[in-house]
Amino acid sequence: MAKVLMKGNEAMALAAIKGGCDAFFGYPITPQNEIPEYLSYHMQEHGRVFVQAESEVAAINMVYGAAGAGARVLTSSSSPGIALKQEGISYIVGSELPAVIINVMRGGPGLGGIQPSQGDYNQVTRGGGNGDYHLLAFAPETLQETVDIVKQSFDLADYYRNPVMIAVDGLIGQMMEPVDIDKEVEQKTLEEKTWASDGTSGKRGRVNKIVSLHLDPYDLEKHNLKLKAKYDEMVEKEQRYEMIDTDDAEIVIVAYGSMARIARSAVKELRNEGVKVGIIRPITIWPFPEKAFDELPESVHTLLTVEMSLGQMLQDVKIVNQGRYQLEFYGRAGGVVPEASEIMDQVRKHLKGAK
Amino acid sequence: MKTQTVYKPTGGLTDRPLSYCPGCTHGIIHKLVGEVLEEKGLLDETVAIASVGCSVMSYEFFNCDTQQAAHGRAPAVATGIKRVRPDATVFTYQGDGDLASIGMAEIVHAAHRGENITVVFVNNAIYGMTGGQMAPTTLIGQKTTTSPRGRDQGNTGLPLRMSELLATVPGSTYLERVSVHDPKHIRKAKKALEKAFDVQEKKQGFSMIEFISTCPVNWGMTPNDSLNWAVDNLIPYYPLGVYKDATKGDDNA
């Protein structure tokens, strides 16, 4: 199909339908409202479920219930709403259920603001719920990449029996961009959900239980190690990233989402000036794409992490860096979107400083 | 000699020994739920939602598909299941701390949306599992570990009556409060449960049966004294009866 011009939130909603989403449960919050608005109309057309819950807390627990019954389920929210969902997310993980969660990030902390932000990096990659767990977390850059990931994420959630979070900043949710909604995406071979607690024990010949309670500590440790094995598999198989102009780079910007788009503009202009600068663009932020850093050429001396937050991803860059390169950081917070010129200034500063 | 089966345990419950304290009425209520589901032939198509509290392990006891919910969220979990599996029979099993305190929003809104689910609400006027703290349903003057001088209205308000409250919610369909302190009332309670699951089978909407229950351990009484205390104190404040039956076109609202 040809590309059509769509608003980010609506494109994600349509991508969810295309990805086989059976049910959506959500609660209004800016800047993601076009997702539930779109789905409130279109899910019905496809004979699927849409419920506007009484709160984010209820919505994520509806997700937990429907996922436990074997459905492909989506919820969407924005930063403070995601904070409210963290309890339910922990239960979903603990019960090994698939679910897709879209987080259209806004500035924080607290009620914060409604302008684009990447201040949820820690909330997305470290989780706010209790226990040892991770979400497979994507932070796409363009609308096309976003819809492709939304469509794929239902398969990935089913495959790992673990929630997938797609974290986009408000810019991606609110902007319009041409997108091919029917572009083919890689699909997983999936097993039947014989574990689902869906009221068909008669046909199945046994009852199914969806629980995250393990009162025996040795049982619970075993369960945690089982979850850990899934995270190890994700680290091995799911790291996604893009290397941009890094082949001869001396300084490499590390940026994701809308920040990476702005960094691209900066790199383009700097390259015209002859500055050897590139970008590592994480597409998954959990697992963090550590493999990307092993691909850097000898010419690199500095990594400049840029974020629309104050050094959250920087912590992961430090862990991966292991002292290899000089580390610099530039961030704007509170919903301020930096100009490409700000990044260019930073690059120039650190090129000189490092020499 | 000819033998005849005069009593056998319900197939609605598993063989797992119940985790409840001696004399607590959870056992009777479990049995009633199991019997009603078995007799109606619904066990094979039911999903039970366990909550947090004394009944946290009830997913091990009901002999049907089960899902364990976070504290207070059982009606939201039930909503998720029922919306994607409308042909399944879905019920929650919740105590008064779970339903009337932390889960107040979820229960009110499940009723408000007219979710076609059944709620088994066990009200013993105390938090049992955590060791006997004050619940929203604790009576004035009742001593608990967090109202050691007796519940005081000035500090904590008056006990909440959930059946009465939910009767004012336009979306609810069937609400009845029952007790299990003697065989006569146990039989009546079973009829109430049958009615509630009937309402769900006929897709008539939200039903809840509130059970007046006991907590001998945390009330500091013998099982027998607990039953008497419930009759003398709880039932006068929480009168038994049908609070709403919209299946007859009487919404009491």
3D structure, described in words:
The complex is a heterodimer of chains A (355) and B (253). Chain A has 355 residues and is α/β, with parallel strands linked by helices. Chain A has 2 domains: 4-237, Thiamin diphosphate (ThDP)-binding fold, Pyr/PP domains (Rossmann fold); 241-354, Rossmann fold (3-Layer(aba) Sandwich), CATH 3.40.50. In chain A, 42% of the residues lie in helices and 19% in strands. Chain A is built from 13 helices and 15 strands. Chain A has helices spanning 8-18, 34-45, 56-68, 79-94, 121-126, 143-160, 170-174, 201-204, 217-237, 257-272, 291-294, 313-321, 340-354; strands at 4-7, 23-26, 49-52, 73-77, 99-105, 136-138, 163-169, 176-179, 209-210, 241-244, 251-254, 277-282, 284-286, 302-307, 326-331. In chain A, strands 3-2-4-5-7-6-13 form a 7-stranded mixed sheet, sandwiched between helices. In chain A, strands 10-12-11-14-15 form a 5-stranded mixed sheet, sandwiched between helices. In chain A, α6 links the parallel β6 (136-138) and β7. In chain A, α1 (8-18) packs parallel to α2 (34-45), α3 runs parallel beside α4 (79-94) and α10 (257-272) packs across α13. Chain A starts with a strand and ends with a helix. The model of chain A has no long low-confidence stretch (mean pLDDT 96). With 253 residues, chain B is an alpha/beta fold. Chain B has one domain (26-248): Rossmann fold (3-Layer(aba) Sandwich), CATH 3.40.50.970. Helix content of chain B is 37%, strand content 17%. Chain B has 10 helices and 7 strands. In chain B, β1 (46-50), α2 (58-61) and β2 (65-68) form a beta-alpha-beta unit. Chain B starts with 25 loop residues before the first helix and ends in an 8-residue tail after the last strand. At the A-B interface, α3, α4, α8 and β9 of A face β1, β2, α3 and α5 of B.
Low-pLDDT segments of chain B: none
> What spatial order of strands do you see in the largest sheet of chain B?
2-1-3-4-6-5-7
Would you tell me the structural class of the helices and strands of chain A?
A: alpha/beta
Biggest interface, chains and residue tallies:
A-B, 41 and 39 residues
CATH superfamily of the largest domain in chain A: Thiamin diphosphate (ThDP)-binding fold, Pyr/PP domains
Number of strands of chain B: 7
| Rg from Cα of chain B | 17 Å
H and E string of chain A: EHEHEHEHEHEHEHEHEHEEHEEHEHEH
Strand content of chain A: 15-25%
Tell the overall outline of chain A: globular
Helix content of chain A: 40-55%
Query: Helical segment tally of chain B?
Result: 10
What fraction strand of chain B? 15-25%
Strand count, sense and barrel status of the largest sheet of chain B are: 7 strands, mixed
Question: Residue share in helices of chain B?
Answer: 25-40%
User: Compute the gyration radius of chain A: what is it?
Assistant: 21 Å
CATH fold category name of chain B:
Rossmann fold
Distance between the termini of chain A: 50 Å
Assembly state of the chains shown: heterodimer
Outline the low-pLDDT stretches of chain A. Answer: none
